[in-house]
Amino acid sequence: MIVVDPTSHVPPYEQVRQQVEMMAEEGVMPPGHRLPTVRRLADDLGLAANTVARAYRELEQAGVVETQGRRGTFVAVRGADRDREAQVAARQYVRRVRELGLDTERAVSLVRTALEG
Length: 117
Description:
By secondary structure, this protein is mostly helical. The protein is 61% helix and 5% strand. The protein has helices spanning 12-26, 38-45, 49-61, 79-100, 104-116; strands at residues 65-67, 73-75. The chain has a two-stranded antiparallel sheet with strand order 1-2.
C-alpha cells in the first residue's frame, strides 16, 4: 500500500510518514491496525531500516501510531475513535453485568475500583 518515489524531492522517510498518516486519517488503516515491522517494510520498499524507523518514530511522536514493545506498531485510537471504542466497551460491559445479574450500583462500583487500580 505504501509506495516510495525515488525521484521525488521529498525524503523517503517523509513519504512513508505522510502515506501512513493519510491512510490512518482516511480509515484505510483503522485504529488498532498493525503496521509491518520496520525491517519488513524497509525490505518491501527497498529502504534502509533506519529510514522506516525514523518515519515510525515521527508518527509515534505525532500520536498517529503507538509502539507496544515486541507486539509491534499499531495505528493509535484518537479523538472520536477513542470515544466510539469506549462506548462499544461500555455496552459490552453492561451486557455482561446484566448476564451476571449484577445491579447498577455494584457494576458502577466495579468500574470505579478498576479505574482507580
